[in-house]
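Record type: ASSEMBLY
Status: queued
Input:
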Amino acid sequence: MKWSQTLIPTMKETPNGAEIPSHIFMLRAGMISQVMAGAYAYLPLGWRSLQKAINIVRDEMNKSGAVELFMTALAPQSLYEQTNRVEAFGNVLIKSTLVRGGAKTPVVFCPTHEEEITSIVSQYVSSYRQLPLVLYQIQTKFRNEERPKFGVLRTSEFTMKDAYSFHTDLESLNATYRKMYDAYCKIFTRCGVPYLPVEAESGPIGGDASHEFMIPSENGEDDVVYCPECHYAANVEKAEIGEKEYARPADAVLKDVAELATPGAHTIDQVCAFLKAKPKKVVKTLIYCVDDAPVAVLVRGDCDVNENKLKRLLGVAKVELADEKTIERVTGAPVGFAGPVGLKEKVKIVADPTIKEMVNFIVGANKAEAHLVNVNVDRDFTVDLYGDVRNAILGDLCPRCGKPITMKNAIEVGHVFKLGTKYSEALNAKYLDENGALQTIIMGCYGIGVSRIIAGCAETSHDDSGIIWPVALAPYEVCVCPVKATDEAAMAAAEKIVADLEAAGVDAILDDRDERPGVKFKDADLVGFPVRVTIGKSLADGNVEVKWRWDSEATLVAVDEVAKTLAAQLEDERKTNARFYAAKKNGK
RNA sequence: CGGGGCGUAGCUCAGCCUGGCUAGAGCGCUACGUUCGGGACGUAGAGGUCGCACGUUCGAAUCGUGUCGCCCCGACCA
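Status: finished
Output:
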C-alpha cells in the first residue's frame, strides 16, 4: 500500500476535547473520526487495527470450538419484553419504530444478544444430542451512554464479540466456561495488551459466577482490588474483605454525646466541612427498604455501601434505598440527618464491623439540621448484625491471604459469566433428554469489547511521540520510508522492498509522499508502526536502516536481505510479542 | 439528570467585556521557486451563512432570550 493512495489524516495539534492518550493519539494518527458524541468512524488505519483484533478474537474462538454466526443489530422490542429487559435496560436501550404501510413495529438496537440467540436456539435445538453448543458473533452493539467519553473507550456504538453457550448440565457449562476463560487469556496475550482476570459481579445480566478481563490503566473506569502477595484480584463491587479484629483502642476516652446544629449539611462532605472533620470520623446511616421493611445500614463516611453484598448478607433478592417519605417516617428527620441513635421507629441496624474501632464519631441526629458528635457504638446504640456490606478500600486485607490489598484502575475488555437458565426459562429454550423428559437449557455468556482492546492498547502503550503498537495490532507492520521521494533509485528500492514484504505476508506501507524526512518520521512515530525501514544515504552502500518503534537505535541491513529478515522476525513477533514485551520491560 | 465550560476557515485559537469601515493569526491546503536525515523558507492564492433562530439597535461575531451541538465533573449504567 502507498501512503498517497489511502487516507491518513495525521494532525499536529490535539483536537479539542481529547484528554487521554489513547483518544488524543488515535485522533492525531488519523485512525478514528468523531461523528457525534459517543460515535466514531474508523478511518483506514483504525479499521485495520480493529480488523487485526477481530481476526485474533475470531481465530481463538474458532480454536476453542465456538462457531461463528451473525445476528441482527435490529430486533423487535417484544423480544426484550419477554425477559423484562426493556425496563431493566431503561434509557440504555435505543428504541425506534418501523412503519410499514401504516402498521408500527417497535424495535430496538440490540445492546446484547442473549434474547436473540436464545430465541434462535430454542427454535432449532430440541435434543440433548445437539448440545453442548457454543455460538458467537462479532457485531456492533448499541447502548445509549448517558455520558460517552474517552474516545472509543466509552461509546454508544461499539464492536463486540459475544459468545453464548448451551448445555444440558453444569459440568458441561463449567468446562466451556474454563475454555472461554483460557481462550480470552490467549487472545489478550496475542494482542500484546496487559490484562488481569478478576472476579466480578455478574450484574443485571444475572448468573452466579463471573470473571472480568481488565487492562490496568490510570484512565480506566473500573476499580480493581489486587493482592500483590497471592494475586487475588476482583472488581471492587465483588471483592470480599479479609477478616480483621476490629476493636476500640484500649486507651480510648469516650466523650459525652453532644448535639450540634449543622444547618444545610446533609452530605458527608458538607458535614465534614461544617464540623471540620474527616469522613473517617463520620458514620453514614443509609435507610434501605428490604422486603418493605426499613433497615438502617451503617458504614464509615469514606466507604460505599455495596447493595449486592447487603442482599447476600440479609439473604434477600432485592434491596433499595428508601424513599424520602420512609426516611422521614423512620428517622423523624429529612433526608441527610439519619443516625443510629434514637431512631424514631424500631428498625434493624446492620453495620460494617469497621465502625467497632471508631471512637467519638459523628452521626446524624434524626432531627433536621443537626448531628451528634462523640457517639460510640454499644454505649449509645447497638447493632443487630455486623457483616461485609461495603466496597473494599485501601487498608483492607486480602480475603485469601490476609495481606494488605492494593487498588488499581482498569479498563474492562472482557467478561465471562454463567447465565444458568435465566434466558432459556424466559424464552422457553428446552430440549428432550435421553429419558425423553423436557429440560431447560443451561447457558453461559462471554463478551469482549473488541474496540476497547484497540483503545486499551493505545492507552497502555505510547510515548510522547505517539502510539507504540505491538505487531499484532499495528495497522501496518512496516513503514518503508524513502527519505527523498524524488530520488528514483531510493523509490525503486522502496517499492521493491514493499513488494517483497507483501509477498512474504507482511503488512507494509510505502510512505511515498514528497515530504521532508522529518514530517515522515514524525508521522511514522505518531501512528506507531512497529518497524520503520528508512532508505537514505546508506543506499549507496547497498544498505537500508531498520528501526523498531520502541528502540532508539537503527541497524543497517542489506537491501536484498531486509524483506526476508523482517518477514522472519515479524512472523516470530506476531506469535510472541517478545520484542515488544522486552522493550516494555526495559522501561520504554 | 445536577453542576461547569465551549461553539469564529479542514485543525488549534485570537477578536466579544467596552457593538462601528473589508473578520484575523498559526498549522494544513493550491501554485511557483529555494530547500531536503526529525514537523523548512519565500512569494502569490483558495478557503468563513462568526452553530442556528428570534429580539434589541441606524448598525450585532460582539448585547438579550431561546434552541441545537460538543467537552469536563458528578449521578446513573455495561
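Annotation: The longest helix of chain A spans residues 170-191.
Annotation: The CA atoms of residues 319 and 520 of chain A lie 59 Å apart.
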